[in-house]
Amino acid sequence: MSYIDEPLSFYVKEQENPFVFHFLDVWEWLMILIIFPDKTTMLYDCNIIDDNQEYILDYLNKHIPSRVIGWELRKNIDIFVNSHRDQDHLRWIKEINKNFPILSIWDSDQSGNSSNDYIDYMTIKRNLAKDWNVFMPTASINVYQTIGGVNIFCLNPDKLIDISEDETTDKETHVKCIVLSLEYLWKKLLLTWDSWYDVWRDYIIPNFNDQWIIKSDILVASHHGSRSFFTDSQNNEDIDIEENPDNTYIEHISIINPDFTIISCGDYEKNHLPNNSALKLYKENTSNKQIYTTKGKWTLQWFFNGYWNWSVVPSRFKKRRIAPTNFDFEIICKTEDWVPYFTWDQIQIWKKLEFSIQTKWGLANIKPDVYREVSNWWLWEHTDHDEIYYKSTEEKTPRDKFKRDVSYIWKHLLRCRVKKSSTDITKIFVVNWIN
Q1: What CATH number does the domain containing 240 carry?
Q2: DSSP type of residue 175
Q3: Alpha-carbon distance 263 to 376, whole Å?
Q4: pTM above 0.90?
Q5: 3 state SS of 240
Q6: How far, in Å, CA of 14 to CA of 16, rounded?
C-alpha cells in the first residue's frame, strides 16, 4: 500500500520520492510526521490521549511507509525528536514505540517532570544504543545533518538551564527547546516549537541574521500562537514594544517572513490561543495573510517534490462514501457558455467556471446539506496563493452551485460534501489550469 494517499496523490506520486510532512490535528498540542525523500521517517513530538488515540494511530499506520528492516517488512520511526520534555510533547510515547518502534532519538537534554509519560520516554531512550541517542548541538550555521537531500539546521540556543522540579516555570522549560530549519531544493520549513522571544533575540537571530536559513516558506508558529514568541507572557498581557521594550521582540517574524504560517491549536475560547496580538503579527508578516490552524483546517498535509513544486492541502480533501447504494451525486463543471469539463481536464486560464451538483436517485428528494471547499496549488510567481477556503456566503448563487474564475496557473481541488442523516458523501473535482 502506498504511503502517498489522497489528497496528496492528487498532486504527487510515491515514485517521485517527495518530501512530505503531516501536521496532525491534536488540538492544543503539536505533533508532526515527516517523511524524507529517501523514506526516512521522523516524528516530531507526540501527544495522544484517549479521545484521539484511534485516529492518530490509524493515521500514522496509513502514512508511515513500510520498509524492509532485517528480514521483516516494518513500519518504524527512524527518528523521534523530542523538542523538550514537557508531558504534552511526549504523552503516550510508550504506545507509539509499541506500534512503530523508535530507532533513534534527538533530544535537547533538558530535564523534565516525573510524569509516567516522562518515565516511559526516558526508559525508551536509555534502552537505545548510545550512538542512536543524540543530544542536539548548539546553534551553528553549518548543516547539522542531510537526510534524503534535505538539509537540517539546528538553531538551538547554546544556553542550557538545569531545572529542578520545584523551580520549573513555563519559560525555563522552553529555553533549550529544539528549533530546526529543514531545507529542500531552496524551500524551507521552520519548526519553532515552544521557543520564547528572548531565545530568538539573544541567540538565534544573532547567529543567523545574515544567513538565508532564517527566511522560511513555511513557519510552524511557536507555542500554539502564544504571545511568548514576542514578549514575556508571564509578565506582559500585551505585545507592546514601546511599553515593554526590554522584554518584547518582534524583528524575527519580519526576518522569517513566511509564505504560510501554521498554528496547532484547539478550542480558541477555552485556551485563548492563538493570542490575538500574536495572530495580528503573524498575519502582517505572512504572504497574503495565509494563516492556517489545525482547529480550522484539521490535519494538514504538505509536500515538496523534486521539480521545485510544493503545496498544502487539508487531509479531508479525499473521496468518502457512507450512504445507501441508491444515494449518489455528480459534480458538474461548465463554462459560462455551457461548455462541459470533466475532472482532470485542462482548462485555460481566464475561464469562468460554474460547478453544480447533480443528484441521483434518493438524494434528489431529501434536500441534503451541501458543503464546498477549495484548495489551490499555484506555480511559479503564484506560489504564495495556495488558498484554502469555503464557498463565500457573499456568493449569491443557489446552494447547489459554485462559481470560480480561473485566474492562476496549475491545480485546483473542489471538495463537495453532501450530508443528510445517515448519508455522508464527499467527492473531489480536480481542475488542471494552464496558460
Answers
A1: 3.60.15.10
A2: T
A3: 19
A4: yes
A5: coil
A6: 5
Does 190 lie in the same domain as 75?
yes
Name the domain count of the chain: 2
For residues 302 and 426, state if they share a domain: no
The secondary structure element, H or E, covering residue 260 is strand 260-263
Which among 81, 90, 278, 112 is positioned nearest to 196, based on CA atoms?
A: 278
Residue 117: inside a domain: yes
Contacts of 310 (CB under 8 A, 6+ apart): 187, 217, 302, 303, 304, 383
What are the backbone dihedrals phi and psi of residue 99, each rounded to the nearest 5 degrees, phi first? -85, -35
Q: Is 5 within 8 Å of 19 (Cβ atoms)?
A: no
Q: How far apart are CA 139 and CA 176, in angstroms?
A: 11
Give me the count of residues in the chain: 435
Sign of the C-alpha dihedral, residues 224, 225, 230, 232? negative
pLDDT in tens, 203-215: 899 888 777 889 9
Task: Round to the nearest angstrom and report the end-to-end CA distance of the chain.
Answer: 35
**Are 194 and 150 found together in one domain?**
yes
Q: HSE on the CB side for 101, CA within 13 Å?
A: 9
Write the pLDDT tens digit of every residue in 150-170: 999 989 876 554 434 434 456
Give the range of the structural domain holding residue 211, as residue numbers without chain letter: 8-314
The pLDDT, as a whole number, for residue 167 is: 40
Task: Scan for cell 508578516, then name that residue.
Answer: 285
Amino acid at 408: Y
Q: How confident is the model at residue 139 (pLDDT cuts 50, 70, 90)?
A: low
* 418 and 388 both lie in a single domain: yes
Quote the CA–CA distance of 245 and 171 in Å, as a whole number.
Answer: 18
- Element containing residue 56 per DSSP (H, E): helix 53-63
